[in-house]
Amino acid sequence: MELFINQVLAGIATGAIYACMALAVVMIYQAIDHLNFAQGEMAMFSTFIAWQLMQWGVPYWWAFLLTLVFSFAGGIAIERLLFKPLAKAPVLTNVAGFIALFAIVNSVAGLTWDFTIKQFPTPFGSSPFLGSQLISTHQAGMIGVTLGLLILLYLFFQFTRIGLAMRAAAALPESARLVGINTSWMIALGWGMAAAIGAIAGILIAPVVFLEPNMMGGVLIYGFAAAVLGGLSSPLGAVVGGFLVGVFENLVGTYIPGVGNELKLPIALALIITVLVLKPAGLFGRPIVKRV
Amino acid sequence: MMQAQVAQGQSPLLEVRDISVVFGGIIALNGVSFDMHKGAILGLIGPNGAGKTTLFNCLSRLYQPSTGDILMEGQSILTRPPHRMAEIGIGRTFQNVALFPNLTVLDNVRVGTHARTNSDIISDSLRLGWVRRGEAELNKKVNEIIGYLDLGDVAHTVVSGLPFGTQKRVELARALAAEPKILLLDEPAGGLNHEEVHVLGDLIRRIRDDRHMTILLVEHHMGLVMSIADHVVALNFGKKLAEGTPAQVQTDPDVIKAYLGSKDQ
Fold first, then answer.
1. Which of A80, A177, B110, B168 is the most exposed place for a label (fewest CB within 10 A)?
2. Which helix (H) or strand (E) is B22 found in, with range?
3. Both ends of chain A: CA-CA distance in Å?
């Protein structure tokens, strides 16, 4: 029983990271109808920025904050320079754009910081949380920071004018423009926020997976699985999906013999396929109905 | 009627100057011109495919005319981006309703005020004092409009589940929230029954009088147009067929021919 609770809690902790990645993916998907394959690399790059700042002696939380600002600006810059010009381009052109972004960010990070694995600090420590063996303080910190972030995002989208404008622009761009919303700028803001959310995910998971240019590969696939499970049209679904996938991954790895750590990734892919076959809109997504 | 006459001496609020729109080889609008005076209700009529909606879409900057100009208070609107139209003072509703389906009635109307409010993402996120004060004022205005259009009971309902007639009222509320100078109504009577059309006619007149708006009405329902419009423009095959008071247009031989066909056909 203790093993079970331990695995569920660990699953919730990594699930928090998947939830962040899924949310970042869904935010960009809502804005431009494309999956950002480079979301993980962007998060990895942000994590390196945080690491570099800390190497230069910047205290953890200041480095954290500065990295968020950098990532937000970087996300907006990527949208303005690369994806705004592709807005009316066919799907495959956009896919090529995302793959290019993936390769460029990955290589630049490797070139700048090389491919050796680096330790990444945690401000929470890794001792048992509240004296309990069930969960470490870092895992508790991951869950806490993510929940705080989710609450702030909810308040932002629900109650502020810009948040409402972003929701409107995602739902129906033509109408949004008619009420005076600069939809193009709302898309850029979505990119900025997605990049910042990804940065938080990267910084939180780096002490667990260690820092290197390919650290987010697996995490992003779980993020995609979470987004598909929850429904690509639903930010809430993405978050719930993230936690579910985290717990599911851990339980399967523990209880199904022969799966272990090596076969965990195919489980995420199998989950994506299963959801797409059985319930393409996901748990919370709205099925797409077109009037003909 | 009265407002329109008072306004005759002034320069027009909106001038449509020789507008043409071409889609591939099809000429959807061919050199259409007319003026709109402050406080008037202008009816735009014509058979299906006459170019009414195309003209509307030019006015809300969804289409770019190939020739001609549209002047609002003497300034061309054609060089401004679509999202500036609300700020300039042009609001509209759609024939098939284009609300934000997953937002509540309240949020849909709240979004309508976007062009009349001002804030940036940082002040908004931190909920600085001036943002909160602005919001209180805005909520008062939004609630007033919701009350004005009798939407109080459904204010917190998501719009996608509401009946079509109610959705049309929500869309009107959203347009009013932007405080437009000119309100473009695209077939507001479509899908309404006889009694509702009557109520709608009164409502449109009331909006003009209470809220000092100028209204351009595209409508198939002749009874409605003829009873509330001060001035009517008739289009056919992208060209202006006739213009004048409802009585003049109704008896115009070209208009009758366009609607009923001529004897020698």
1. A80
2. strand B14-23
3. 54
